[in-house]
Write the structure tokens for this entry.
Amino acid sequence: MDRLLTGLQPSGSLTIGNYSGGIRQVIDYQKTYETFLFVPDMHATTVPQDPEALHKNIKNAVGLYIACGVDVNLDNMHLYIQSENLYHANLSWILECMTPFGELTRMHQFKEKSKNKEGFSSGLVTYPVLMASDILLYDAKYVPTGIDQKQHVELARNLAERFNERYKGDFFQIPEPVIPKIGAKIRDLKDPSKKMSKSAENTKGTIFLLDCEKDIRKKIMGATTDSDGIIKFDEENKPGLSNLLTIYSVFSGMSVEEIVEKFQGGGYGDLKKALADLLCEKIAVIQDNYQKIMASGVIDDALDRGREYTNAIAKEKYELIRKTVGYGRI
Ligand code: AQP
């Protein structure tokens, strides 16, 4: 079975964007590939985090993965926490030493996240290498992701190729990003020029999977659109409306064309109302599952199993790489 790997950083509470680009794809592929689904808690600390909130977000994230439909009873599903495996950071160091600094400062995400921020951490520059290490340790072939992380998966590819070439061997599998055809970039509802983010300062543009029904309705009804009143998918000229159609498609399974047809001739208000109804219905199911999961022992059981399994794989790979670069004794 080929391996698929992804993670969602617990830098806040998960959003419908994280669902669309990350969790949804895991659910679609979980029966096809050996799946490594982890919580990259070390990535979250590239910006300051309150320790208690971080612990909480880690557990909530795993609860939400399962509540959305990740099946922890599958033998090929491995759920784990990044910081419970010391090999991620160790391999990252080796890969950092093979990564020109300029390659990292040119990354879109770095430019976006460091904009107007003085004194950002070195981790904000180097975390894509840690992400490469997360992927390469397990020889993952497929990495489901939204569009924002595509460049980071490409870095992982480059590093794998660079290492294999320099040390003359097939040490690492070359990973491929898997980007959904629709919903690879859910936009902020208030400012559709930006992507929806869990750590956005203005939460009016973000729908969290744990939002209450009232907030979901308010956020959708208040979403920025345009004034021409025509229901049409046109991301360049109608980014707000196109975003609503995209979200509708992600949560209904209908194609954008079918949705445009369905709402043709109606006002934006009708579309918004129907989308709010749809989201409330789908998110209520997730939240209901979530309450049950959080009250059970499922999360810790799954994480304990995942830690044991993934540590063994990571150790073997790291030991090979460590010796290959010449660390330690012969
Ligand atoms: N708006 C989005 N649309 C589609 N996919 C998205 N992803 C994130 N935002 C969107 C995808 O979700 C997965 C997990 O991402 P992450 O949490 O590890 O990091 P991120 O991309 O930085 O997500 P956020 O929500 O924007 O977090 P913060 O605010 O902390 O930076 C990835 O597959 C990502 O592509």
